[in-house]
Amino acid sequence: MPKTTTMRLLELIVYKEDIKNVLTYLGKLGEFQFQDDKMESSGSNSDLEMFDRLENVRVALDIDGLTSFREEIKLPEEKDAKDAEKFIAQVDSLHEKELHAQDDLKRVSEAYTEAMAFGNLQVPYSQLESLTFLTLRIGKIPPEKFDELKFALGQRVVLVKLGNDNSRVMVACPKKNRFFADAELKKVGFVEIEISKDFKGIPEDVLSRLSSEKKSVESVLSEIQQERKNFAETHKDLLYHLLQVYSAGSQINSVKNSLESTDYVYRLTGWLPAYRIKDFIKDVDKMTEGRTGIRDFLPSEVPSVVSGSEKVPVHLKHGKILQNFERMIFSYGSPLYGTIDPTPFVAIFFTLLFGIMFGDAGQGLVFLIIGILMTKKIIKLGGWEKFNIIFIAIGISSTIMGILTGEFFANGEILRPLSRFITGLFGTPRDEILPMMPSSDPASIKRMFLFFGFTVGVGFIINTTGLIVNIINQFSLRRLGKALFGKTGLSGAIFFWYVIAFALRIAIFHHVPNVIDWIIIAGTLLLTAFCEPLERVVEHESPVFENGVFAAVIGALVEVIEVFSSYLSNTVSFLRVGAFALAHAVLGYIIEMLVETTPSVGGLLVCIIGNAIVVVLEGMIVCIQVVRLQYYEFFSKFFTETGREFNPFSIVYGGKKK
Questions:
Q1: Cα–Cα distance between 176 and 178 in angstroms, integer?
Q2: Beta pairing class for 158-161 and 168-174
Q3: pTM
């Protein structure tokens, strides 16, 4: 049986001039896990600071963010640093211009809005200042003082020319700024123009000038915004390049700052799959021209592993098909290092159980097509693309089961010719190879019970596989006591197997129980019940009865109840597989009846909607049930202790830690 990947601990002594190249190589390799995977970075990280600045620039330019590296992973060079500083300075300049234009527009718009609000106010002009938040000053200044006044008033006051020269002006500002405006006007010799006391409303010329000023500022702001968009489009590739090199550099610096070091060298230790050792040493030696010292250790040579304070990381090496099923393993827990890799069994059992419970050739083809389209990257389903092989697998199994049951999108007529052809090769042609719909026919009831018996048989195989995996694992870990005794040990397995065989002999062959049967059942049950003291005997631990004989007896009685209840529930649980298969057939039958009783167009809609609901909702329910059966009936047999998942250092875009 396949086991977890063999690992080695490496110790590297790297010169300071080589450390960044070595760490970059490790990050690209993605198969080296630092021995202390909780190292904390110390010291400054200039590359991380630059990456954050570039990210702020990206947001300011409204450029889409990256999710992964688009070019070869490289570290920032001196030219990149100069380009980054120049780029950021250009964007800052653009941003500052845009902010000034926005402030100007806000100021002018407020003044114009205030003026418009009182443009038609039928009160004397002389009373406007006491009625609004707007202060207006209309008068004359020396023409040569216009630019000086405009600079002095700044963004807090609107200055508008009222004639063709710079001699007549209007000043508009919020009342809170009127003292400031009056002071600056006085400095340039402002002389207020007398406005008729009977004049009512805001002068039309004033409104016109304010409107013109507003449009002018809007035009300037629009030009600046267009300039920003053009700049973003023409410099997008440069920004992406800088973001990528500084993302990589920030991660390398973070790891480097967490390593042990002297004035001349760095020391780093970590775990690497054994099959990588030869090429790894060759690559590092070539990269550093033989300056790096490398030593490798077996797990049994690592003191922390021997003492039990450290667990060897568990790496599972698979092809593309089995990789899809790995997350089911690690979502439950990591196997112990050196034990059997359960992924192949999970792949087989998951695919088989799903197909049995979801038997429809048409609906199965939907999963198959979705899986193929995800593989080709034609469709994306919010991260589910990584399970594309699982979709293909369950699509194939569901399609096969659908051919056996004669269902195609809940229709029992379409596959009937195929079913009659296949069954005709072996005898009398039948409409379905494996009829699922129950009826009052005794033969139908018998087939249904046989099918439920088949699903229980599948459960027996899955339970047995879990027991065998656990027994082999315990022997591999040299835990002789756990391998021989206990509910999931050899004694418990023999009890389970013999009871099943005993029951089948009575039911099928009408076997009469004899003394040997009871001896074997009682003996294995006794060894299982007193597993704890027996384990201590085998492991040469004392005292044998750690908490006394009476406590051991009570514990044995509890263990007996646990053995009977767990094995019974583990076996009966698989009746749900048959129940879901039957429920799926009934749902298909209901949809078919609704289609037949609905007019043509309505029938088509019922068919489409009904099948869509079954594919989505029942597909999810069946998936949950299959995962549950795997977790509670299969994993529970050998996942008595979890290991440490392999979590190698890898340079990932945007990552800020190893």
A1: 6
A2: antiparallel
A3: 0.77
